[in-house]
Amino acid sequence: xxxxxxxxxxxxxxxxxxxxxxxxxxxxxxxxxxxxxxxxxxxxxxxxxxxxxxxxxxxxxxxxxxxxxxxxxxxxxxxxxxxxxxxxxxxxxxxxxxxxxxxxxxxxxxxxxxxxxxxxxxxxxxxxxxxxxxxxxxxxxxxxxxxxxxxxxxxxxxxxxxxxxxxxxxxxxxxxxxxxxxxxxxxxxxxxxxxxxxxxxxxxxxxxxxxxxxxxxxxxxxxxxxxxxxxxxxxxxxxxxxxxxxxxxxxxxxxxxx
Length: 258
What we know:
- The chain is 31% helix and 16% strand.
- The protein is α/β, with parallel strands linked by helices.
- The protein has 2 domains: 168 residues, Alpha/Beta hydrolase fold, catalytic domain (Rossmann fold), CATH 3.40.50.1820; 78 residues, Rna Polymerase Sigma Factor, Chain: A.
- The strands form 3 sheets. A 6-stranded mixed sheet has the order 1-4-8-5-9-10, covered by helices on one side. Strands 2-3 form a two-stranded antiparallel sheet.
- β2 and β3 form a beta hairpin.
- α3 runs antiparallel to α4.
- The model has no long low-confidence stretch (mean pLDDT 94).
């Protein structure tokens, strides 16, 4: 397999739907993926990279739209994850918005997008879908599984579910279970999405949810060190959003909406 390939695997069949932890099942599941580097003859140099909440399978290089991979600085020839040595795989998670089956996909039973009716997906469901892709690629063992944040949760689940498949794990900035702090922040973010939809302005809800999320991804110490109380304009009323930290959150909110 040559450098940077992309595609989609259908991991279900008419007689074999994809069962979810929730007890429901999906009759048709597609998982988008990208690979980088070359799988060696022994098939023992494969590294699975797991993306975070808003990531995609595009982990390295430049795609057709000119977008750089989200871990381009780490994955590639001569980089930390060297694609001259390793065969790197990244899938878009089940429930994702970048090619894999999720809320924007068409429900075969209705002919319209799932939307809010899409079943709840767990980290375990995501990993089981990834395992199906790995099997389709003809890989029996993974040299390493690596990922950060929600990707790190997938890494831990890989070790728990498939210890005979994974040789090494590198979980980054993650946890095995959310703290009450994160549960509360995520509840607020979901409410922001719901309020935006109810108001007819889903972009505003998504923007606000992303701002809440960006606070949860950082610490009070980092915010103090990085922003302090610096302002872009000292002669403007503070309530007008002139603090550096406010602009930082605004940029990330707009970026996700775009």
